[in-house]
Amino acid sequence: MPNVMQAVGNAGRFEEVVLPHLDAAYNLARWLVRNTHDAEDVVQEACLRAFRFFGGFQGGDPRAWLLKIVRNTSYSFLEKNRPVALAEEFDEQVHVRDVPAFDAEAIMVRDVESRMLRESLEELPVNFREVVVLRELEGLSYKEIAEMIGVPIGTVMSSLARGRDRLRESLLRARAKEGTRGL
Amino acid sequence: MVCDDNSRLLHGYLDGELDLIRSLEIEEHLKTCPDCAQQLWGQQTLRKAFRSSNLYERAPSALAVRIRASISQENAREAVAPLQSKPISMLSPRRKVWNWLAVAAAIFLAALLTWRALPGGRGDSDLVAREIVASHIRSLQPGHLFDVQSTDQHTVKPWFNGKLDFSPPVRDLTEEGFPLIGGRLDYIDHRAVAALVYQRRQHLINVFIWPAEKQTDDNLHSESSQGYNMVVWERDGMYLCAVSDLSTGELQQFAQLIEK
After folding, report:
1. Interface check B249 vs A, CB under 8 A
2. Domain residue ranges of chain B, discontinuous segments joined by +
3. What does pTM read for this prediction?
């Protein structure tokens, strides 16, 4: 029996429960669509969807619930506007085992600048990028990530392994390039 | 040459996601395999780079305004539509009363289930939970976070001397990824309490501490309110309540670290 009073209550509750996680929503959308303007549109669309589904929210972690909707909305956006960005997901050409052994000394923490890390993360295929963002920036557990993207926990671990290895590889390449430029 | 299966499990190990037996196996393996040890070191380096980076993208403040506006617009549409599409006379007055009662009963039950477990001294536990969330939110506003800003537990703990009638346990957890960043006095459930502030990546955690006035049965439990999660436990006659927008899982991990 929807009526005006109940509807007002819904909006208030939605704002209290869901909107504290707006930063998390934006961070995920921003890293998935790789553009601030599109990320804002995606988050707004996702929040509107979340509001429509809010009656079906069974309690639990509202952040995970919202992030799942943001992820779906981001993928719909990518399918429609950036099909090429999604195609990378199926690129299995680069095998991490084939990359040369890491020179551990070369990636001392102080030297890894945020900017390089940002560029390397931007370049990562979307399926690896999302698990790295959810784990390293949002701090979700494997179980939470598995539930969100609908894969087994073992797959989350594999994707993280691949994603992080690729990141390190690309950081190394970036450093090598900057190094030669400096010479 | 890095061992394939172990190099995948190394990530589970790094993330604290392996069970005890697997973790021990990996630790054994690391002792004898320099390749894997180097891999792990590299991954830890990468993690540190993430922690000290500015990669977390915060929502522009205008976005919240935009979203609130679009929700209230959507809301107005939803509220008006059913009234127009369905003549009010279709619901008998008695049915309406029962509907309202059902909603009220459901809300009451939900409130009971959610807050029953929070310890309340003199006050009602529901109110205590609300006060805690309100204090947490207030502390996030500019200038309200600390009275004493320090990452040193030996500075923060003595600061409470003479300000409280108890001495709160203070531990820095920087090495575990939850650096202590300060403390302040707060007021919860009709009494002055200690509030310790910890940081986890971009998230802040407030730990409220006050003396327990009655024994509780459960040692650790979790709740959530207004989108914030809290974990409450009792230790040496004191209640500790950690509240944050972190996930319940991470908050429980944090609570266990404090207890170690």
Report:
1. yes
2. 4-42, 88-117, 119-259
3. 0.57
